[in-house]
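Wed. Picked up where I left off yesterday with Tagatose 6-phosphate kinase. The coffee machine is broken again, so keeping this brief.
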Amino acid sequence: MSAPPVVVLTPNPAVDVTYAVDAQEVGTTVRVRRVSRRPGGKGVNVAAVLRTLGEDVVALLPLSGDAGRWVRTALEAEGLPVAVVDVGGTGTRSTVTVVDDALPPTVYAEPGDPLPPAAWEDVLAEVRARCAPGGWFVVAGSFPPGDERVVGDLVRTARGAGARVVVDASGPALVLAADAGADLLVPNEEEARAATGAADLAGAVRRLRQHAGAVVVVSRGADGLEAHADGAPVLQPGVPGVVGNPTGAGDAATAGLVAALRGGADLPTAVGRAAVLGAAAVLAPLAGQVDPADVAALGARLPAPRPATVPPSPDPEVTP
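Structure written out below (tokens, as returned):
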């Protein structure tokens, strides 16, 4: 009997618009050389990379209006299985990313509209129906303003159905997911510290693990990924010499982590896979894409993991 598919929820999907320009400038007219539009949101990117890796996956999306219908049609055309909850409203939000060949990308992200309670009940019903023992449920991305509290219900619902739960979120949603018993949390260092109010990463990890003992994998940018579970933390350095567009790299890393763990890998191996997939995403033209040839080549250059320098320790500034 095959394993249940990975269910990936994007709580606040978007139409991602990317403008390629000669140079990013403020206060003037900038001519756009190339425009691309594609379905967006962290969960969409995670699901797309999982699909590229050959994983059985379904993207769960609350969508609204004409823009939401376009997102659904575009994803189906790409061959990504989708489960849609129609939430009404005027339309799914947009994000605009401006890129050139010199500066880091500039992203303009609309907040999205809060969903009616009945819409979240429909989302929870989909989670309940699609998650099963042995399955994986991923929540990736921001929530509409004020809806972060729903993450606790999402975690408890998926775990109640027997699935392992991964949350890639920021702000209050990250802490609420930890308190609800998420199995794996994947913030970056800034998100972990900001969400918990901790003075340093050690304190942030301690706060996120203090209730359910979740595994916490923290992205540390150029310093790689740091994995915290029972025992000594492990630092996985990034693949050296990778230059490109980092948009979506964290989403690809989450996909690599989930795919490896789903396949039975231990945590250090899975974190190494995450580092390779994140690097491959940097080389790809758009978020949600990786080239399998890049994945293979980068894997050969991956440094060995090593013990993290500073283990988690009590931090009096951690938010209760």
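Quick read: The longest strand covers residues 32-40.
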